[in-house]
Amino acid sequence: MTVVLAAERLTKQFAKDDQAIVALRDFTLSVEEGSFVTVLGRSGCGKSTMLNLLAGLTEPSEGVVSHRGEKLTGPDMDIGYLTQSDTLMPWRDVQRNVEMPLEIRGVGAEERRGTAAALLQRVGLAGFEKHYPRELSGGMRRRASLARMLAGTPRTLLMDEPFGALDAQLRTELQEELLQLWQGSGQTVVFVTHDIEEALLLGDRIVVLGRLGRIVTDQKIDLPRPRALDTLRVDPAFVGLHTAMAAALKEGSS
Ligand SMILES: Nc1ncnc2c1ncn2[C@@H]1O[C@H](COP(=O)(O)OP(=O)(O)OP(=O)(O)O)[C@@H](O)[C@H]1O
Question: Which ranges of the sequence are coiled-coil (predicted)?
């Protein structure tokens, strides 16, 4: 298998009031092409710091990130990033938000419109093209953000607790929709969460982080796909994995 994304011995420290704060220490990870890796960890263990480094948004204090064999020195159009909070542009309607990555690439207006319309249909937002972000619910804004990320056709997707702020039912809907969008796409995903069920529902592999991004467990998840939470919750294999992940999280925080 081809390694798409590689983090080698990453350390990140921030300066605050003349003091160095270490957020991530000696973090190493290889992500294979087409895989869905969920990174599970408690609040403050360095997940967002790690994802920002993988996205090329910040520079490591030590270590190297490589994407498709090349050292990452800044943001890359081939890497899509869905953050925890909304980054839709408030002054653009949904259609024009989704068109943005295509505009940056210099794609013509007609093709942009066609691509955006198809994506909005896929994420269930057909009919909302002319709405502004403030006129959408939280779930709809997440869908629009997802469509905007996909419009850039990145082969690698990084997601930082993208559904964390939604109610449980909506979260389940969006998780299942994300799986449908991803399956067969060939895209590689790194999805950060602190939710064990979410990690197990989505991932081919779960990496559990402890303090400062220490890898406590790195485990393959063989649960058959398609996966749905309702049926998974009563599957003994799922229950066993859930218990193991909970124990790993606990170990990581000590
Ligand atoms: N820009 C910054 N300046 C100073 N400290 C920072 C900065 N960014 C993160 N940190 C610190 O680094 C540590 C890890 O933060 P990070 O946001 O990566 O954790 P996280 O696992 O993503 O948390 P959460 O799940 O709550 O989002 C925290 O102690 C945080 O305070």
Answer: none
Domain edge (last residue) among 113, 134, 153? 153
CA of 27 relative to ligand 1 center, distance in Å: 15
* CA of 209 relative to ligand 1 center, distance in Å: 13
pLDDT band of residue 252 (cuts 50, 70, 90) is confident
Whether 254 shows a pLDDT value over 80: the answer reads no
Structural domain that includes position 94:
84-153
252 token code pair = 């990581």
Pocket lining: 194 vs ligand 1, CB cutoff 6 Å:
yes
pLDDT at 248: 95
**DSSP secondary structure string, 217-238?**
EEEE----SS--HHHHTT-HHH
Q: What is the pTM of this model?
A: 0.94
Top mutation candidate among 12, 16, 18, 21 for ligand 1, by most atoms within 8 Å of CB: 21
49 and 102 assigned to the same domain: no
Same domain, 163 and 249: yes
Distances (CA, A) of 186 to 6, 12, 86: 18, 30, 26
ipTM for the whole complex: 0.96
DSSP string covering 22-63: EEEEEEEEEEETT-EEEEEE-TTSSHHHHHHHHTTSS--SEE
Q: From ligand 1's centre to the CA of 141, what distance in Å?
A: 24
Q: Which protein residue's CA is at the shortest distance from atom 18 of ligand 1?
A: 46
What is the Å distance from ligand 1's center to 89 Cα? 25
